[in-house]
Design a protein that fits this description.
Helices cover about 50% and strands about 10% of the residues. The protein is α+β, with helices and mostly antiparallel strands.
Length: about 400
Amino acid sequence: MNAIKDSVHDYISLGPVARDLLDTPLLQRLRHVKQLSTVRLVYPSANHTRLEHSLGVYHLADRALDHLGIDGTRARHVRAAALLHDVGHGPYGHQTEDVIRRRTGADHDEIGWLLEDTDAATVLRGHDLDPARVAALVRGEGELGQLVSGELDVDRMDYLVRDAHHTGVPYGTIDVGRLVRELRYRDGRLVLAAGNVQTAESLLLARALMNGTVYRHHVSRIAGAMLERASIRLLDSEGDASNPTGPRGDVDVETFRRMADHDLLVALRGTTPDLARRIEYRDLYKRAVWVPRESVPADVVEMGHEGSREAAAEIADRAGVDRDHVLLDVPPRPRFTESRSRVVVDGAVQRLSEASELVGALRAAERAQWRLGVYAPGDAVDDVETAATAVLGLAE
């Protein structure tokens, strides 16, 4: 059994399946996809990769299976799923996920298509594992799928502690050891054993604090919006309908979703050189508008992708700037997935939202942190702010 030195979990022991999977191009590509995408423009030390994270998830899944007393073929499928759970990510991870979803209808956790005719599928079958069963576990299906993708999954446990470690912030520190040890199955549901309401709360609190400090930092959001606009340009062979004279791309979505981070930056230089340069050298747009939910009309909050693009174009026209220089960022409503975690209280299984008074306060805090953003080059900020306030009907 091989062991790999890890910055978070110390030594990670690899079984035969993991060792062979690790050598496949499917997993090696993740060396070149950063875990925190544009967040590293805020925290320079956040350069860890999705391969490191995948190894961490594998390690925690292995420990959880041991504590749960699950072994044999079932456990081997879960370990493989944990290691492979992120291979469906495109370049820059979540920052390009919406672009890919709009063109393929698939999320990053739908990896069945990747396991059909690849070296990874050959490895799995060579170890008497079913690629389709592994893909289903990655999607969170079945009792054991909850370990890989669910409210108490080991994916979340690893990325919180890993992201906190590499950014240097103290907010993602959770007791991973206790969380893994206290996992139980009750009526087919993954729950935390009795006496662990505070353990579950710590996971929820860590996620909420990391959201505000790391994952939704305004600089990362600006860079992410710029990256999405540039990626659309790259993929749109017919050009942007709002700018028929704009640059045209010649990269299909299947090629795009298999790129590494550096591949995407190189490709963007050919279609959107200004945006590519700005992202690469952190010469980012500025906030022209940054307003809370109560200042935004309800129809704007619910505005979809196409509506946002049309509104951004109208803002640019009114402000007298190039349409490529205005980005409208309407984030989705906050989701508190972790509040659905189940804990045993007085012998009965309850959702954390029922067992903890902290959940309500954190939900209110998440809503209070929601911001709509409109971004533009520094010299256009004032004009864009005036135009955006009028076009979107923002409260002044």
